[in-house]
Specification:
The protein folds into two domains: 2-105 and 187-261, Rossmann fold; 109-184, NADH Oxidase (3-Layer(aba) Sandwich), CATH 3.40.109. 41% of the residues are buried. The strands form two sheets. Strands 1-13-12-11-2-3-4-5-6 form a nine-stranded mixed β-sheet, sandwiched between helices. Helices cover 34% and strands 22% of the residues. The longest helix is centred in the middle third of the chain and has 17 residues, at 148-164. By secondary structure, the protein is an alpha/beta fold.
Amino acid sequence: MRILRTPFDLDTFFVDLSRAPRAVLMLDYDGTLAPFRREPARAAPYPGIVPALDELTANGRTRLVIVSGRWTRDLLPLLALRERPEIWGVYGWERLFPDGSYVIGALPEAARAALVVADGWAQDLMALGAREERKPASIAFHWRGRREQEIGSIREALVHRWTKLGRPSALALRDFDGGMELCATGHDKGDAVRTVVAEAGSDAVIAFLGDDYADEDAFRAVPDTGAAVLVSHALRQTAAHLWLQPPGELLMFLRRWRAAQRG
């Protein structure tokens, strides 16, 4: 583990956690809790992660929240946790509560129309080797496992069509690990974190763990007293306080969280 921003201190953070009446642990999924897979439906959590999370939430002092770019319906089968956590999907457009109640943001007509146009690009991009993933409020084009030349052709074709469309403000074109995504603007992971932080109250200890560029919005939304944690095999420029490598250091962090709450 490496501290990336001062005055953040990991020991002080865990001391605060041991004394806090409540805590919130927010986690991205792909690249954070689970390794990337060419077939996303097979991206199961790293070994040991599910038992660690089950033990961590058993005493009821930690509120577990998954904040992902995935569609919640695709994520649920992969989360074999003892108790269903709260899940924010599609970068904050969806919110699925532990009791099953569900909220989704209203998609503006301009974003809907632009996504329909982008969906029409799928056949050409798939001919270049891309895989299309449709979600509420976004369309992702994946290229994981493709050769560099194929990736370059897919990226070039996608950016060309995006530019020709006029780069509408209702959509954002985002890079992610293994592809690019056209996502409706208006919600992001930072919005999800700010909402959860406000609900938790000022005496709660907060942490968010993520790996991808979309997680930077969430890192910046973590309070100064909280922990923004980059989970990645390689260090990159980030707003996070702390860098750790999965799965070993991730498991160490979760076990130390559990130990702190045991006093």
